[in-house]
């Protein structure tokens, strides 16, 4: 048999096996057999790359990472749904349909199609001549993100529709979800790997995993897809087009898509209410998280008569489930130190299953919240988990005999005296070198908007910090290639590159360096401003609060934050050692007096087509403008890119000139 024939055969067997396993839930091949055939396919495609097609089962492993998710704009908007929360509201809604349709009193009951409301993330699939060509997230309904390479890794999404005469084009909408058990297993794996990224609920996990820049990561996430509606269909005979939601489900299933087995018709209000009660009772037994029941008018003809409002169709409603509450015991209150130094109290609970997910921790946010609840370790508490909320301690049910909680006055990690500002609820560890914050500091310092150090990524930084090789940012500059070579995933070449990257960052522009220090309230535009005003790091570090406040754009928060930062001895020590290592940020060019934008106060909003936000700000400042972050009466120009929202509205209300990036570039040319 020649390679081409064998390739076709393997593809067919694997596609069928995949469909049987992931869509029908009725495996036809053993895991071993499947793996063996897949390995054969991969080897065959390696030897004959010309055989590899877009819809080959090999594509499920995920393609190379993308730099950013492209946007995707659709013509038929993805709608949302109106809600109701109880049987009366549902009956009211159904009653209005009858009125709207001017139906007689004794007309037959309306037929509804009821479906679980899956708590995942919406996705639209576009098939052209049967082939999956685009998968896009919902976004704002019209503009979403193109996640085609990511979606292709979801095994229950067919790469090609299982039909001989597919429509010229069809869009299928549905929900990407993850099973509750997979959700828990993945979170456990993430925390075992020491990742900070633990997901609050299956929906966040599904949404986050679908939007991964690296599709190979998406492939590892056991995502699933359930089709629930049509977007648009064209180029097919009318006879193929279903006449009802049930018909859509049947057609989608024939095409190889997965539809939810719990969906069914219900005639009239009381049968639909009964379907709801049934679903509520069994919601915890279903493998996926659901947060309600969707009822749709089954007939497409009647759907069309009812029509659609701006954002929601009249013919569908989401009947939400009540939040789930359980009682459990508060074992202790732990203090977690976040990347910004915030000391967050966390309730450690006796593990309790709530809606199919085991809850053992809940953030208590801050000391005020604990006071408000009157919470003490040992108390019996009520914990709530609504679909869209992270577990929350609602109230104390029964006081235990624990001691009242007192916020520690020291950071539990580095023992530095913690601070809480007047009027703020958050207690913080102010130590610039606090180990709990160090990883985050270094990653920020090395990041794109700051020192831009090639190769200094999360994995490496974790190892450097854990191994005690780097105790503050100055330590980076004495790392040697020999030291790095011993680390995980560090070959000689990459070690050399990292050391070279660190050395190359020594003369980065001052604003980047300043931004890299991660001083609270001092972001990239304040950094640019300060660098231009003061010229050198020394001048900024020694400026008095009054002096700083004299600058128009500097408010009291920024001024006091700067002073506090530079007054800390460990900061002074780090800065001195950085200088000794040859880190000498380049002072900004003198700002052009009376430049083309002199006297203008400019604000940027939305995504600009070519310039990054930082580059745009820097150019504006070089042209003599001052840059603001919000639109106020003082603003004179707004440069708006794509997805400009409220700022643009506000600018228009205030009669402020709004420029495109092109117009902005013309003005400063
Ligand atoms: S139909 C008619 N059916 O809920 C409106 N949506 O609140 C189109 N969702 O963005 C959606 N399960 O992502 C429909 N069985 C289901 C659903 C469902 C979950 C999501 C969907 C939509 C949101 C609307």
Describe this structure in words.
This protein is α+β, with helices and mostly antiparallel strands and 669 residues long. The chain folds into six domains: 3-61, Helix Hairpins; 82-320, D-amino Acid Aminotransferase, Chain A, domain 1; 323-428, Beta Barrel (OB fold (Dihydrolipoamide Acetyltransferase, E2P)), CATH 2.40.50.140; 435-507, 5' to 3' exonuclease, C-terminal subdomain (DNA polymerase, domain 1, Orthogonal Bundle), CATH 1.10.150; 510-580, 5' to 3' exonuclease, C-terminal subdomain (DNA polymerase, domain 1, Orthogonal Bundle); 601-668, BRCT domain (Rossmann fold, 3-Layer(aba) Sandwich). The chain has 24 helices and 21 strands. The strands form five sheets. Strands 12, 13, 14, 15, 16 and 17 form a six-stranded antiparallel beta sheet that branches. Strands 2-11-10-3-9 form a five-stranded mixed beta sheet. The radius of gyration is 29 Å and the shape is globular. The structure holds 2-(butylsulfanyl)adenosine. 2-(butylsulfanyl)adenosine (IVH) binds at residues 79-81, 115, 117-118, 122, 138, 175, 228-229, 294, 313, 316, 318.
């Amino acid at each position: 048999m020649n390679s081409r024939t064998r390739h076709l055969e393997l593809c067919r067997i694997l596609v069928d096996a995949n469909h049987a396993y992931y869509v029908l839930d009725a495996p036809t091949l053993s895991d071993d057999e499947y793996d063996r055939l897949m390995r054969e396919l991969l080897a065959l495609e390696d030897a004959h790359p010309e055989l590899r097609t877009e819809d080959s089962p090999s594509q499920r492993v995920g393609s190379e990472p993308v730099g950013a998710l492209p946007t995707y704009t659709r013509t038929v908007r993805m709608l949302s749904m109106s809600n109701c929360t109880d049987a009366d509201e549902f009956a009211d809604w159904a009653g209005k349909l009858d009125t709207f349709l001017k139906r007689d009193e004794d007309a037959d009951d309306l037929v509804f199609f009821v479906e679980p409301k899956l708590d995942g993330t919406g996705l639209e699939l576009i098939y052209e001549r049967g082939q999956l060509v685009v998968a896009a997230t919902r976004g704002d309904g019209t503009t979403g993100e193109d996640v085609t390479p990511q979606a292709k890794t979801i095994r229950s999404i067919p790469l090609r529709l299982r039909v001989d005469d597919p429509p010229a084009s069809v869009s299928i909408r549905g929900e990407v979800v993850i099973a509750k058990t997979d959700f828990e297993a993945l979170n456990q794996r993430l925390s075992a790997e020491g990742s900070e990224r633990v997901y609050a609920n299956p929906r966040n996990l599904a949404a986050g995993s679908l939007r991964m820049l690296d599709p190979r990561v998406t492939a590892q996430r056991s995502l699933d897809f359930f089709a629930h509606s049509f977007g648009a269909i064209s180029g097919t005979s009318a006879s193929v087009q279903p006449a009802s939601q049930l018909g859509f489900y049947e057609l989608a299933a024939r095409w190889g898509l997965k539809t939810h087995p719990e969906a069914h018709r219900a005639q009239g209000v009381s049968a639909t209410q009964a379907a709801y009660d049934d679903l509520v009772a069994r919601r915890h037994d279903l493998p996926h998280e659901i947060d309600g029941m969707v009822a749709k008018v089954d007939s497409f003809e009647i759907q069309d008569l009812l029509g659609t409002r701006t954002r929601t169709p009249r013919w569908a409603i989401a009947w939400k489930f009540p939040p789930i509450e359980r009682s459990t015991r508060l074992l202790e209150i732990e203090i977690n130190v976040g990347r910004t130094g915030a000391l967050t109290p966390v309730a450690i609970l006796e593990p309790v299953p709530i809606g199919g997910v085991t809850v053992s921790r809940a953030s208590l946010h801050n000391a005020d919240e604990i006071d408000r609840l009157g919470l003490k370790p040992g108390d019996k508490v009520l914990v709530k988990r609504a679909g869209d909320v992270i577990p929350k301690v609602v109230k104390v049910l029964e006081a235990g005999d624990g001691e009242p909680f007192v916020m520690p006055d020291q950071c539990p990690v580095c023992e530095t005296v913690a601070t809480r500002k007047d009027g703020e609820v958050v207690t913080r560890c102010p130590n610039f070198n606090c180990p709990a914050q160090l990883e985050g500091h270094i990653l920020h310092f090395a990041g794109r908007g700051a020192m831009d150090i090639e190769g200094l990524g999360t994995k490496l930084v974790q190892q450097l910090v854990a191994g005690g090789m780097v105790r503050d940012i100055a330590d980076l500059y004495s790392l040697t290639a020999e030291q790095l070579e011993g680390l995980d995933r560090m070959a000689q070449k990459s070690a050399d590159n990292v050391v070279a990257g660190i050395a190359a960052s020594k003369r980065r522009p001052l604003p980047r360096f300043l931004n890299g220090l991660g001083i609270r309230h001092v972001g990239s535009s304040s950094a640019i401003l300060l660098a231009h005003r003061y010229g050198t790091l020394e001048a900024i570090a020694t400026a008095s609060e009054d002096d700083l406040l004299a600058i128009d754009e500097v408010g009291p928060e920024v001024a006091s934050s700067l002073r506090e930062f530079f007054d800390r001895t460990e900061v002074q020590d780090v800065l001195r050692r950085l200088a000794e290592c040859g880190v000498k940020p380049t002072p900004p060019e003198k700002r052009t007096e009376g430049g083309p934008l002199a006297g203008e106060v400019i604000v940027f909003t939305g995504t600009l087509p070519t310039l990054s936000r930082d580059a745009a700000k820097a150019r504006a400042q070089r042209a003599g403008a001052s840059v603001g972050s919000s639109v106020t009466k003082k603003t004179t120009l707004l440069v708006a890119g794509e997805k400009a929202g409220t700022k643009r509205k506000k600018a228009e209300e205030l009669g402020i000139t709004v420029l495109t990036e092109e117009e902005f570039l013309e003005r400063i040319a």
